[in-house]
Amino acid sequence: MLISPDFMRRIAGVAAREALPRFRLPGLVSNKLVSGFDPVTEADRETEKAIRALIRAEFPEHGILGEEFGAEGADARHIWVVDPIDGTRSFISGIPLWGTLVGLKQDGDAIAGMVAQPFIGELFYATGEGTHYEGPHGKARLSTRATTDLSEATLCTTTPSIFEPERRAAFDRLERQVRLSRYGTDCYAYCMLAAGQIDLVVEAGLQPYDIVALIPIIEQAGGMVTDWDGGPAEGGGGIIAAANSTLHARALAVLQGG
Fold first, then answer.
1. Domains in the chain and their CATH numbers?
2. What is the mean pLDDT of the chain?
């Protein structure tokens, strides 16, 4: 099933109308957790409501899974997976590395996805015919880098604190082998991977709504995304995204103890 780029732009538009006016403005931040801190804002909730309404109107037979309001139509062949503001911590800190993530699964496989960052004015999307960029630099078809040696690679993760001790040790092994590592990038790192700016993203503890939209964006640009076992990434958990299969295999071997 092909989704038109115009529909991705429409999703980005309704999301921006809800999220952007609330960015860098004082507002209530709720904590989802009894212990710890997992913030949610009015912008998260209202953005997801707007996206759900658009999907229901356009594809009433499709299901939806969203971070804030859960699942509906979970038995449908096509499921839209929505993270209204991926990087809420960045959002509430005024850092424009958050984004709206919307992906589409068909029979469990991620086939289309978009990331919109309205403050910067960038849109990344993949709808079955490559990965595309629209923003201040105009329009472009994206492709990943050809880096195959870890010693030449740039690695991103949101923060090393997301890793439990065993996986933190594995991440540290990989970080010691790459040329450069950067933190605090949220979903934007995956976009930069698809755009050929970095080479690896490694994370853990992800939910499906954190990754489904990003899989097609990376894969249709030439990259590879799996879990830490080398299996499908649609279910979340530990994720490794790489610019190509050779670099992926080398990074995965390090993470697995090689």
1. 5-142 (3.30.540.10), 150-255 (3.40.190.80)
2. 94
